[in-house]
Amino acid sequence: MDKGRFGVPAAVRDWGIALGVAALMLGTGLSGEHPGADPGVLGYALLAAGGLALAARRRAPLAVLGATGLCAVGYEAAGFDVLAVSYLVAVYGAVRAGHRALTVAASVTMLVVLPLTALVLHDGPAGEALAQARHVLEIAWLIAAFAAGEALRQAERRADEAERTREETARRRADEERLRIARELHDSLTHQISIIKVQSEVAVHVARRRGEQVPEALLAIQEAGREATRELRATLEALRDDDTTPPRGLDHIPELVEQASRAGLDATLTIEGEPSDVPAAVGRTAYRIVQESLTNIARHASAATASVRIGYRADSVVVQVDDDGKATPDTVPTPGLGLLGMRERVTALGGLLRAQPRDEHGCEHGFTVQAELPVEHTS
Hints:
single chain
């Protein structure tokens, strides 16, 4: 619910204004003199109705403008000489909502109709009739209401523009910081890790050529260097991804499957449902999940086959990657950086991720990754 200063809901404020204006106009009508006959119940009802109509001024400003104008004409015809406060508030609300041209047209119409109504229905001299019409809607008050509404509308527009500018500035600074961190990581870590990786591989190669047994520690260093290189490359890629270029998405998943097949993995792709346009963030996340899953299968699963399924639903996209690797239902998956990154991406979109050994009927081993990504207004 929209809340303003002091946390008061907008609907409560609107009703407070409407009741206050209605009470003010009824009080003025009861205490004032009536040039003609007794206005009767209808006249008082029109006074109150004009004020109460203001409760809907945020939802339907033009309708409230028309209603308060008709009420002003009606209670003037009934004999009331009361300033049309409700119409002035409605003018303020309509201009604030951006309906300047229609408000001007309605006000000009009121300035013509009110004197004509007084001339037709007033029994006294024409001057008194015109004076009554001026009292009901004074031009100075009308201009003031219009100016107040326009001033607040401009102030709100400038505030919105300033907010957008702040967001763009913050986003630009975040992009610059990401690129700076990427450069720092590249300069400080990549070279050193590459040296460790190359030297360990050379040491392993030399030991094998000499027919010597390669120490387990050296093999661990070699594998750790390869893994660190891969993780650092993925981290730098993510840091440099500032969304200024078209992102990789669902349309690029067939390339991943083809690359896995060329690398020796029997990989297949199945599309279920009718493909549709999805937000860029959803497509990018789906691509990363498939990419990371196929990479893990090739490196760690000792699998011969892998299947990728993309399911398009009414309100979500389901991505599932299965393999026939060495994982069993009793295997406890180790939460590495790749799995953690997938989970963070999916959670950021409000989706669900399931990554565990396969337990379908007839599957004794293998691993499955399944992500359900909502597509409702995600950007």
